[in-house]
Amino acid sequence: MTAPLLVADDLHRCFGPTRALAGASLRVDRGEVVAVMGSSGSGKSTLLHCLAGIVRPDSGRVLFAGRDLGALSDTERSALRRAAFGFVFQFGQLVPELTCLENVALPLRLDRVGRREAERRAAEWLDRLEVAEVAGKRPGEVSGGQGQRVAVARALVTRPQVVFADEPTGALDSLNGERVMRLLTGAARETGAAVVLVTHEARVAAYSDREVVVRDGRTRDLEIAA
Ligand SMILES: Nc1ncnc2c1ncn2[C@@H]1O[C@H](COP(=O)(O)OP(=O)(O)OP(=O)(O)O)[C@@H](O)[C@H]1O
């Protein structure tokens, strides 16, 4: 049996008096799309932030490809995040001063890929996300659905091993939301990326292979989808 790509083991995390995680565990296999569901305030985003090495759990461990994130220095953890993870959030993740093409090219530029090559790959991803026509526009000049597809392109352009998506369709109508989910999960499956998807919408979770429910900071598996 191959080792899971990402494992959260009995995570606990408090913010002051608020207990956000109280024994959350999760495993994600390579290429698997896992939906993390639950009501508002149940701890979904905190779990995602712990898995991505953005928030440190008070206790419990997160292992990525067998490496304990808690044992890495801050520099090592950010290097790992840049190399292996992609992120899509609900709003505001695009840089407003850059064009959509430059936004998608940015993670490659930060990895010292030359401008021409970075923009060539960015253009391919915009095309794949069916949003090539906004390449020269700034994020403020595109629709919400187009902006999210640009954000998905930016998350995938570095070919991450895991895409973390926190309510990626939360600000979209259902038609645009479904389009973003179809393109996100389709592209992730093609590139072999796993997806950890936080959502409270069953229709969005239906794009996953497996659903996990968080309640009062604890996880439980709901079902294995067919
Ligand atoms: N940085 C923080 N500072 C203080 N409290 C926080 C912080 N982050 C989360 N919390 C609290 O921890 C609990 C879990 O929050 P979390 O954002 O993980 O829930 P969620 O399930 O993602 O909620 P939602 O669906 O509303 O986004 C909540 O009570 C929240 O108020």
Which helices and strands, and how do they pair?
Blueprint: E1 6-15, E2 18-28, E3 33-37, H1 44-51, E4 59-64, E5 67-68, H2 74-84, E6 85-88, H3 100-110, H4 115-128, H5 144-156, E7 162-166, H6 174-191, E8 194-198, H7 202-205, E9 210-215, E10 218-224
Helix pairs in contact: 3-4, 3-5, 4-5, 5-6
The protein binds adenosine-5'-triphosphate (ATP).
GO molecular function: ATP binding; ATP hydrolysis activity; transmembrane transporter activity
Pfam family, one: ABC_tran
Domain ABC transporter: 6-224
Descriptive overview:
- By secondary structure, the protein is an alpha/beta fold.
- It has one domain: 3-Layer(aba) Sandwich (Rossmann fold), CATH 3.40.50.
- It is about 35% helix and about 25% strand.
- It has helices spanning about 45-50, 75-85, 100-110, 115-130, 145-155, 175-190, 200-205, and strands at about 5-15, 20-30, 35, 60-65, 65-70, 85-90, 160-165, 195-200, 210-215, 220-225.
- The strands form 2 sheets. The protein has a 6-stranded mixed beta sheet with strand order 6-7-8-3-9-10, with helices on both faces. It has a 4-stranded antiparallel beta sheet with strand order 2-1-4-5, covered by helices on one side.
- Strand 7 (about 160-165), helix 6 (about 175-190) and strand 8 form a beta-alpha-beta unit.
- It is globular, with a radius of gyration of 17 Å.
- It starts with 5 loop residues before the first strand and ends with a strand.
- The model has no long low-confidence stretch (mean pLDDT about 90).
- The protein binds adenosine-5'-triphosphate.
- Adenosine-5'-triphosphate binds near residues 18, 38, 42 and 44.
- GO terms for molecular function: ATP binding; ATP hydrolysis activity; transmembrane transporter activity.
- It holds the Pfam family ABC_tran.
